Amino acid sequence: MSLPEFKLLRPRSVAEAVDLLAQYAPDIQVIAGGTDLIPSMRQKLFAPRYVIDIRGIRELRGVRSAAIPAARAEGGRLRDSRQDAGVTGEGVEIGALTSLTEIEHSTFLRSQYPVLAEAAATVASPILRNMGTLGGNICLDTRCLWYNQSLTWRKGCGFCIKKDGNICHVAPGGDTCWAAFSGDTPPALLCLGAEIEIAGPSGTRRLPLRDFYTGIGDSYRKLEKNELLTRIFLPQSSAGWHGVYRKLRIRGSIDYPLAGVAVAIRRNNGHVEDARVALTAVNAAPVLVKGVREALAGRAMDEAVAEHAAELAARTAKPLTTSALTPEYRREMIRVFTRRALLQAFNS
Ligand SMILES: Cc1cc2nc3c(=O)[nH]c(=O)nc-3n(C[C@H](O)[C@H](O)[C@H](O)COP(=O)(O)OP(=O)(O)OC[C@H]3O[C@@H](n4cnc5c(N)ncnc54)[C@H](O)[C@@H]3O)c2cc1C
Ligand code: SF4
User: Fold this and answer.
1) DSSP 3-state helix, strand, coil percentages of the chain (rounded to 5)?
2) Is the peptide bond before 172 cis (omega within 30 degrees of 0)?
3) Positive or negative torsion for Cα 45, 48, 49, 51
4) Pocket test residue of 168, 175, 220, 321 for ligand 2, highest count of atoms within 8 A of CB
5) Where are the beta strands (DSSP E) in the chain?
């Protein structure tokens, strides 16, 4: 499958990127690692006239203390040892272009924000994680069996609401797209209370990640065509929480999640002090499960307590027939994974 023709733009700074986006929007698409966008362009899901390759923007790479400005970090980033010593009070800033491999292997993230490092390590395959970025994973397009197909295949089915058509094959009769958000790191980031920074023509805005997603499959994120995701912030208050990520996929070596659960727990004196559970691949957005803190805080974790929270997670999951596995199985696996992940995180 060939790529559609496009003009490639290569800015060297955020300011230059924002200018180019303003100039060519809406017929422009950001590319970071390209691991999701390129296959989608080959399938003719996107055919922008301009593609803006942001990989030359060095300031968007690396993990650093949010307290230390990027310019002062060695070579644009901090060594893990320095992070171990220096990250205090302000939490951590991760550039949107930071590769998933770097997140997976960061000694600092593995010790302080383990659920994120673990989720990053499950994305695709090692080669794709070398190319794929955290920003791309957050902005990832939603997925559906009827959408992630070639043009010929989609044409044969009469297209669908998400692209070029006006019916939904998953929920016929409705006018909503239910394609599933299928990124692995966003549920981990939600558990950590992450915020993101977006740069656009009128400056930068910072918002909680949970407010970035709409829950609608064909307009799943609040990002204008002239905007760029620049940074991700993890609060100091989430550092040191015990975390586990569990994922259901068909091929263990490479596939997107068909159900995913991130769990983060703060323990104190043999009890849960605080806890969060977030899901992916079973709704049109990654979602935090409501009521988990209330169900777990102040209690010691055992099978029954974990099962109670797992039931809340299963009720939050709303999988439809957007993937190769049945909605019933995916929902059940959310319950099983949540129970196991809570027990593991508590006992780790
Ligand atoms: C075979 C295969 C298996 C995969 N398995 C998984 C998996 O298991 N889990 C998973 O989560 N993903 C998976 N992926 C998808 C992909 O590898 C990852 O999600 C990766 O993190 C995407 O990052 P990227 O930098 O390559 O994004 P790109 O492909 O460059 O971009 C993805 C989307 O984000 C937008 N974007 C990227 N960066 C920015 C930015 N800074 N600001 C604004 N918009 C931006 C792009 O315009 C595009 O819409 C898989 C891909 C393949 C090909
Ligand atoms: S959920 Fe419906 S509209 Fe959305 S991609 Fe699938 S078939 Fe298309």
Assistant:
1) 35, 20, 40
2) no
3) negative
4) 168
5) 7-9, 28-31, 50-53, 63-65, 92-95, 195-200, 203-208, 228-234, 242-248, 259-268, 271-280, 287-288
Backbone φ and ψ of 127, nearest 5°: -65, -40
Which residue's C-alpha comes closest to atom 2 of ligand 2?
168
In this prediction the pTM is 0.94
Cβ–ligand 1 contact at 135 (below 6 Å): yes
Distance between first and last Cα of the chain: 46
Those residues whose C-beta lies under 8 Å from the C-beta of residue 144, and which sit 6 or more positions away, are 160, 162, 170, 177, 178, 179, 180, 217, 322, 323
Cα of 319 from ligand 1 centre, angstroms: 21
SS3 sequence of 249-288: CCCCCCCCCCEEEEEEEEEECCEEEEEEEEEECCCCCCEE
Question: Both tokens of residue 254?
Answer: 């490479």
The string of pLDDT tens digits covering residues 37-60 is: 999 999 999 999 999 999 999 999
Give tens-digit pLDDT for 63-84. Answer: 998 764 444 443 344 444 334 3
Q: What is the 3-state secondary structure (H, E, C) of 191-243?
A: HCCCEEEEEECCEEEEEEHHHCECCCCCCCECCCCCCEEEEEEECHHHCCCEE
Rounded to whole angstroms, what are the CA distances from 333 to 175, 275, 280, 329, 337?
A: 29, 20, 12, 6, 6
10-residue mean pLDDT profile of the chain (348 residues): values are 94 98 98 98 97 97 74 40 45 97 97 97 97 98 98 96 96 95 98 98 96 98 98 97 97 94 96 97 98 96 96 98 96 98 96
Closest ligand 1 atom, residue 257 Cα: 8
